[in-house]
Amino acid sequence: MKLKDLPIAIGVFILFLTIPTAVYLSTQPESLQTLTKAGQEESAVIYLWPAKLETNLDSQFEITITLASPEQEVKEAHAVINYDPKMLDVVEIKKGPILGSYEKRNIETGKGQIEIAAQGNFQGSGTLGSIVFIPKKTGNTNLNLIKSGSKVLEAGGANILQGVNGTTVTIK
Asked: Which residues contact residue 171 at a Cβ distance below 8 angstroms, ignoring those fewer than 6 apart?
């Protein structure tokens, strides 16, 4: 091979590498979901309210799980929240008014994890549910929404969850 043919050979080599890679990536479920959205932005957020809370030992308090999806209709929402079971006890998980069918309201006290899932039709901002806690000892603790375990599905089944925000609790 002559030196003048080297750029052509490199170009052909790169072409043969990129075509199989592009085909492989386009057949992966996550890539297909991204491709079918065709420029639509993820548009839902799940957050805990209030973002900061001060409470007294042995005083129950309630945290609201809020779903905001102003641009797309939601068909299903699933929120996973972690908490420190050494600091807090879960008293109750309440259903919210925005989705009609609540298929899951679980508490795993050993893991310090709460799950709430519901189906229905909703667009806008509203209460997915709420959690009533009672503190066990003084100090600071966090309630964290776990994005990788949470999802908000639109009618086509695409997960439109953009972000999550938790709560910081100070117990006196």
From this structure: 55, 56, 57, 87, 135, 137, 138, 139, 140, 141
